[in-house]
Design goal:
single chain; about 260 residues; 12 helices
Length: about 260
């Protein structure tokens, strides 16, 4: 007799934002014995965290995705934390809803300016083969504009529009602020676990020790990256409407950008 197909391909979906500490979040949530991270299969996927089904691997078909995420015990919660999913179209999210109708969706937001600078650094590293980006200072010009397009700075920073597409299909999507993860990680993780139906206090001792150790790890922060002041202020102005829209809609505040502006004066 064929095994019963699981209701969800992915039980826990984190859709971004890129450079908003989704790797730390995945690492902590995966300490729970009920969660499952698929095997590392780069370059098809990105480590054990990002399946990239809807951007890299869609042509492989849904059975490939379902098999990749299938946990060893069906009651475990399978995870896919792919930040590029924030940009999925309504049609793609509808397909996601069909494949994972009861997935718990998480969207982590980060100050648009700080997130953009971190993303530009990452794309610069990729262009240079992973080394030396700290020594490169990008100024306004065609190279910068091409880098912005490649990194999808405008699209990745459109938090309200991205959220609304997902909320049309997953109205209980949990929205977090990166700055809260840095300031009060325990409170944020408590919200995430409650959202996913996971409990901290009932974890076995070995799992609880692993969870506690991971909670002690420093939340990832951007490495200082030289940015010319004219470029910095261009980005600040370019992203300001998106910042204001997100702050009003989600009723939160982004403050990380101020440190970048103060350093530029």
């Amino acid at each position: 007799m064929a095994p019963t197909q699981r209701e969800n391909c992915a039980d826990i979906l984190c859709i971004g934002a890129q450079k908003a500490s989704t790797s730390w979040l995945h690492h902590v949530v995966n300490a729970h014995p009920r969660t499952y991270a698929f095997p590392d299969s780069e370059p098809t996927t990105s480590t054990v965290k990002e399946a990239h089904f809807w951007d890299w691997n869609h042509a492989r078909g849904e059975e490939w995705y379902r098999t990749l995420l299938a946990p060893p015990q069906p009651e475990m919660l399978s995870m896919d934390f792919t930040p590029e999913y924030a940009l999925m179209s309504d049609e793609q999210i509808a397909e996601c809803k069909r494949l994972s109708p009861k997935a718990r969706v998480i969207y982590v937001l980060r100050d648009p300016l700080a997130r953009a600078i971190s993303a530009l650094r990452m794309y610069t590293l990729w262009r240079k083969g992973g080394a030396g980006a700290e020594d490169v200072e990008i100024g306004l010009g065609e190279e910068f504009l091409a880098l912005m397009r490649e990194a999808k700075i405008a699209e990745m920073s459109s938090y309200m529009a991205n959220y609304q597409r997902w909320a049309n299909h997953y109205p209980d999507t949990l929205v977090l602020n990166y700055e809260d993860i840095v300031a009060t990680p325990e409170a944020v993780i408590a919200r995430v676990f409650a959202h996913c139906g996971l409990e901290i206090d009932t974890m076995p001792p070995d799992a609880r020790a692993k969870f506690d150790a991971r909670m002690q790890k420093r939340v990832w922060a951007s490495v200082p990256y030289p940015v010319k002041s004219d470029l910095l202020y261009f980005l600040h102005g370019f992203l300001w409407p998106k910042r204001q829209a997100a702050e009003r809609f989600f009723k939160l505040r982004f403050t990380e950008y101020q440190g970048f502006l103060d350093a530029a004066r």
